[in-house]
Amino acid sequence: MKRYAVVFEESAQADVRESYEWGCRAWGTHEAQQWVRQLRTAVFQQLAVVPKGFPPAPEDDEFSIELRQMIVGRYRVLFTIKGRKVHVLHVTGAYVDGVDQLENDR
Questions:
Q1: Which residues share a beta bridge with 91?
Q2: 57: DSSP letter
Q3: Is the N or C terminus of the chain more exposed, i.e. has fewer CB atoms within 10 Å?
Q4: Please, which pLDDT band fits residue 94 given cuts at 50, 70 and 90?
Q5: Measuring CA to CA, how many Å separate 49 from each of 5, 24, 31, 53, 63?
Q6: What one-character DSSP code corresponds to residue 55?
Q7: How confident is residue 87, by pLDDT bands cut at 50, 70 and 90?
Q8: In a 3-state reduction of DSSP, which class is residue 103?
Q9: Which of 48, 39, 97, 88 has the alpha carbon at shortest distance from 68?
């Protein structure tokens, strides 16, 4: 089985950093670090193997690219597939409107 390369775009890295900083304040550093490790492990393990197994994001038809989503706990991972690479665009919590974030990145 061929594997995909998973690339966390800067926008997704910024989302994770922001959530990590919130987690440090809410849960403490150790728990926030665990959350980041669990999230990144889930994303890399699953998207490297079966990215097309995840459904299109609800806002997929609003963009010119195919936008898919993966749910990890209470977080939504938005990504696109280009060739053999999976580009993770955003990681949003349940409280964030992903459409607004994506429109800001255009």
A1: 77
A2: P
A3: N
A4: low
A5: 9, 31, 27, 9, 25
A6: P
A7: very high
A8: helix
A9: 88
Cβ–Cβ < 8 Å for 68, 59: no
Residue 66 burial (10 A CB sphere; 0-12, 13-18, 19+): middle
pLDDT-derived band at 104 (thresholds 50, 70, 90) equals very low
* Tokens linked to 9: 């775009």
Integer CA distances (angstroms), 21 to 25, 30, 32, 35, in order: 7, 12, 8, 11
| DSSP helix/strand/coil, 73 | coil
Map out the domains of the chain with their CATH numbers: 5-105 (3.30.2310.20)
Tokens of 32: 């926030």
Amino acid at 27: W
Residue 84 tokens, joined = 């053999």
The two structure tokens encoding residue 47: 């998207």
Helix, strand, coil shares of the chain, percent, nearest 5, are 45, 25, 25
